[in-house]
Amino acid sequence: MLRDVVIDTNVFVHATNRENFAFASSIALMEELRVVSTALCVDAPSLERARGDLGAIMNEYRSNLTFGMLGFAVLGHLASNERLRFIDTDVAQQDRRDVWTLLDGRVDRVFALVAIKSEERELVTHDDTDFDEVVCEALLTRWGVSVTNAAGALGLLK
Asked: Residues near 144 by Cβ (< 8 Å), separated by ≥ 6?
């Protein structure tokens, strides 16, 4: 069983869309997260950020998950059970440059940095565009970060 995991926002969102290819696996992952002890990793808020800014990942979750969505309920459950792990994204300057070169989206870069600094180095996403085969191979080879989808992560949680 994983001690911690990083989950892209799209996995939470896909648990609400019956038309999405990953609907069933996303729901299964959300349900499993509620019963295992695995922590969800997010970036730690910076003291320099504006008051109320929870970090890039939590802000993205807050922008895309609303009351009534399964992902919103799971996040609430994890938070109330102290299963959110706030990860400092400070890495060596060369590592930061390499991540910035690999990924275009700011929040995607933060997901990658959090995964690099997490214990288990597992990143769950359904974003095959930004996290394509080249990016996934680079994350694994350079930093030991394994990128998987909800179905793959479900197997790791059990």
From this structure: 121
21-61 residue pLDDT tens: 999 999 999 999 999 999 999 999 865 555 566 789 999 99
CA 83/CA 63 separation, integer angstroms: 21
- Exposure of 107 by Cβ count < 10 A (0-12 exposed, 13-18 middle, 19+ buried)? middle
Domains and CATH numbers, the chain: 4-157 (3.40.50.1010)
d(CA 117, CA 137): 17
Quick: pLDDT tens for 93-149: 999 999 999 999 899 999 999 999 999 999 999 999 999 999 999 999 999 999 999
Q: How far is CA 91 from CA 99, 115, 142, in A?
A: 10, 12, 13
The stretches of the chain forming alpha helices (DSSP H) are: 9-14, 23-35, 56-64, 70-80, 93-102, 106-117, 133-143, 150-157
3-state SS assignment for residue 15: coil
